Amino acid sequence: MCYFHVKQACKARLWGKSLIEQKGVLDEIDRLHSSISQLEYDEIYTELTARWSVQYPDFDDYFREQWHH
Fold first, then answer.
1. Minimal CA–CA distance to 50: which of 63, 37, 36?
2. Nearest one of 2, 40, 9, 37 to 25, comparing CA atoms
3. Is 27:16 a contact under the CB 8 Å cutoff?
4. Is-contact 22 14, C-beta < 8 A?
5. What's the pTM value of the predicted model, to 2 decimals?
6. How many other C-beta atoms can be found within 10 angstroms of the C-beta atom of residue 48?
7. Coil, strand or helix: which one is 44?
8. Strand ranges (DSSP E) for the chain?
């Protein structure tokens, strides 16, 4: 999958959130993308989804269903 399109789709899903919130979540997606192992990815994802599920539940559901298989 093209990372550019992943970020573009995620940004569209964050529409309506403040620019600071959007940037924060997109930066966190960059952290996931930059992970150097599956273990590191899993640890970062666990941390992020715990917060996203509370702060951005619709986005968390979307990300899990579309990009985190």
1. 63
2. 9
3. no
4. yes
5. 0.89
6. 19
7. helix
8. none
